[in-house]
């Protein structure tokens, strides 16, 4: 069992992924086995791996102990350093640091996957991390415990929240944002809470800009004070927020979607992700959770789909906290945004899941409408820097499938990781081979520069020709030199068929039945081409 959680990329097109796994996982030619628990059964460990632009695994490393551990987030500094956020169920020694049981951790790895150091984050629920060129690390965490430890600092949370009309209360929640230096020393930690016992504050995502300013987002209920800024909401309805702190942890500003003028209904909002561009623009991913409800993001008014279960929103702010625009999805399903990333031109990419109990339901991004295949599907959508949806695609099967992480390739496409709850998942013309069990991670690439060829046409690239393409039982290959090796790789980069060009003429290959329908990459020397088997 392995579940891909998140990924990042570098300027050379390599990608880095983190995942939790149980037992043995095969990553190309690399095999990793999780630590046995005290009963001799496999525990759940964490791995970090690097893949080249073609999807081949270059290295992979395992971290964890004898308990059930979790991979939460992975980020990469421009210097090539990787930071992993995770959680240890039974504790373990990472590098030279002993991490206690049921505690979060941040681990620093170099570009070759060598573990350099690790630091315990505390008993709060760690949510996200961010880094910048200086190698500083920002942590977002939340907790409803009465005694909370974050970044070696103890906080108390004695509050409760009434739950009318029911005769009970629930613990209030506090959010936290903490900064860690590049050499692993905690710099500061700030609490997101209010003066009244009945409050809720969460911290779900963070970002760092080039100057070291910190950005944090989450949700609040009741009154929450962020420096000199007070944000409020009713006790029954949460509101999302974004706030900025200086490099030394001073609150600079905080904003939240404005309520509409009565009698319009206020939409409950939640927050998922943040990203900051090199120019200092802030991109914010969240959700409109009240069907028919309205929320104002500066000049943009968004209305959640009436009769639906939730839409996603993306908003853009200046570095001073002024809203520039906001865009949303629409549909009758429950749409959740889980991943947000920017390319070099400040185009935004989002991924997540669209759940519906009806296969006739759709999710719309601007003019693009995607049909749900049943249960929960993956979506990937691109938004221009001006706030206009550019395109959107879906993937999925009959189970619960979701996209969780994004990494733009800076050529108009994007890499995506996620989790497949379906035994077989379709990614356009590409299909993952059916799995005996659901619940596995996937890694995929969405490209806008290379599209599937039309049925019956040959595909050509600098002398490499495949015909027919798509094909069913056989394919003819021309172009490569005599005796040149020809390799077939599946969508995961695995070598599945090897042949050799004849002394003269084309190579005719009868495809073995083991090659399931889907997308394959045919390579010969420096040439490569896509082949679709139907």
TrEMBL record:
Cross-referenced Pfam families, in alphabetical order? SBBP (PF06739)
What superkingdom does the record give? Bacteria
Q: What is this protein called?
A: Uncharacterized protein
